[in-house]
Specification:
about 230 residues; mainly alpha; about 0% strand
């Protein structure tokens, strides 16, 4: 029995490390996609596209380990929530990686055109999105529902910035119709960053469920109610 418990604990540690590795790869992909876009570095965009296969393969490895733990170990309560949360986080991280690929693809297209004037702050959106991913993973590893709720609240900043960027890009396209195609691609990029924030928010909602057994998805969370109650 003791050997079985030790083996199970080792597998849970392995699962945590794999999720963290996946998160690190995804953060790196976001960073490279932004570099490709802002610094017009198509080589960085190519690296993101090439490395996406690694993220996809790791997603399958994590899913396999989760299923092994669920079927063979039959965990109870706290450990069960941890494993099912890891499965859902794994899916969200893979989708974040896909958004980094999308950003890189738009960067490759935009890099073939003359640069537009800098009037939207994509690096700021990127840094906020990366911070949300990083904090969501920290909340998961530390089982920190307070950090999870604080990170959920940060999603509003990305939503606000997306709306502002859309407005500026629309105004620019209206004044310079010849730039419509580029403005549209930048609008897509802005939306991709907003979706990364949404995926990070999903992860945090799962962390709250894992730590407190409470479902806060679709509930309104305010700055005056940061204890995770979601009321």
């Amino acid at each position: 029995m003791e050997h079985k418990a030790t083996h199970f604990a080792a597998k849970l540690k392995e699962l945590t490390e794999l999720v963290l590795r996946q998160g690190g790869l995804v953060e790196e992909a976001i960073g490279k996609s932004v570099h490709a876009l802002v610094d017009r570095d198509s080589a960085s965009a190519g690296e993101v596209l090439e490395n996406d296969e690694v993220i996809d393969s790791l997603e399958l490895e994590i899913d396999h380990l989760c299923l092994e733990l669920l079927l063979l170990q039959q965990p109870m309560a706290r450990d069960l929530r941890f494993i099912t949360t890891a499965m859902k986080i794994n899916s969200d991280l893979e989708r974040i990686g896909d958004h980094a690929v999308n950003i890189s693809e738009r960067a490759l297209e935009l890099n073939e055109e003359p640069p537009l004037p800098t009037f939207i702050d994509l690096p700021l959106m990127a840094s906020r999105a990366q911070a949300m991913v990083r904090n969501a993973l920290d909340a998961f590893v530390r089982r920190d529902d307070d950090l999870a709720v604080q990170t959920i609240l940060k999603d509003r900043e990305l939503n606000h910035q997306m709306t502002e960027n859309f407005s500026r890009l629309t105004d620019h396209a209206r004044n310079r119709p010849e730039d419509i195609a580029q403005a549209l691609r930048l609008s897509f990029v802005t939306k991709y960053f907003e979706r990364i924030g949404d995926m990070s928010k999903n992860i945090c909602e799962q962390v709250v469920f894992m730590t407190k057994g409470e479902i806060i998805k679709h509930q309104h969370i305010t700055r005056g109610n940061e204890d995770g109650d979601g009321s």
